[in-house]
Structures are given as C-alpha cells and as structure tokens.
Design a protein that fits this description.
Length: 170
C-alpha cells in the first residue's frame, strides 16, 4: 500500500520537542500502557492475525492517532493567551525576510522566545513604574514596542541559528 500522511509543522515540532524534553514522561506512559493491558494484547497477537489485518486498517489506526494529536494540539494552542501586540509588531519584519533561505524551525522558535520575552518585559514594566516617583523616571517603559520586539526577534534568530557549512548561503 502506498499512502502518504501529511503532518503539520506544529505536530512535527511537538514530536521533536517531546523526544528532546519529555523522554521520561513518554517512557512512563509506555510502561503504564503495558501495565494496564497492552502487554496482554500483544501476547494475543500472532502471525496469522497480523497477516489478516489489512494494511488499510493499520494505516487508519496511525492516521487516527496522529489526527487526535494534531486536533488536541490545535485545541490547546488556541487556549494560550496570544500576545497579539507582539505578533503584529514582528509580522512586518518576518514578511521582509527571505523565507526560502530560512530554517522554519529556528524562525518559529525565535518567534516564541520573542513573545515570551516581551510578555515578561510587559509584566516587569508596571512594577518599575510603581516604584518610580515620577513617570519620567522610567524612560525604558516608553520604548517603542515594535522596535523592541524586532530587536529581540533578531537576537533570538542569531542565538538559534545553526549554520550548515555545506550550505552555500552560509
């Protein structure tokens, strides 16, 4: 059977992240499945039942699992409080970059880090302003948001960039 499965960038990124950061959790989940009946199911499976299982059925099992992961990921991503001000600030800069010559994983990671740093800075500014006697005492609070966001984005891009010596572009 020749079948193709198309996975979103977000799902592939999730799988990569889980392998890098949550191997212990994945291992614990596998152990739990084995302890709760999966080992018994495997013992019942023999060569005849494997041959009887249609490749179409197996394909749909894999597809259903990946679709569940993707829908769950999308649902959970929608619940995250998106910093639209930062997104709007860095979007014009992102559109000016040559997308064909960029590693999309590095770009996505840099965008997420920029949003996180901007959110952290936003939380610190009110604290600084309440400590200040006069509003003029906190000039860093008046920094242009989009200029600051773009600066952080470029810093993060450079930090995350892993050039490939074989690539002519580098």
């Amino acid at each position: 059977m020749s079948a193709q499965i198309s996975l979103s960038f977000e799902l592939i990124s999730l799988l990569n992240w889980l392998l890098r950061h949550e191997k212990a959790m994945l291992n614990a989940m596998l152990k739990q499945a084995l302890e709760h009946g999966f080992a018994e199911e495997l013992e019942k499976v023999d060569a005849a039942s494997i041959a009887a299982a249609e490749s179409e059925e197996l394909y749909h099992t894999v597809l259903d699992f990946l679709e569940y992961l993707e829908h769950s990921l999308i649902k959970n991503l929608e619940t995250i409080n998106v910093d639209n001000k930062t997104k709007d600030a860095i979007m014009p800069t992102l559109q000016k970059l040559e997308a064909d010559s960029l590693d999309h994983k590095t770009l996505w990671l840099s965008m997420q880090q920029t949003k996180a740093r901007m959110l952290k800075a936003k939380q610190l500014i009110p604290q600084q302003q309440t400590k200040a006697i006069a509003p003029e005492a906190a000039p860093e609070a008046k920094i242009d948001h989009s200029e600051h966001a773009n600066k952080i984005l470029f810093e993060q891009l450079l930090k995350n960039w892993k050039p490939n010596n074989k690539d002519v572009m580098n």
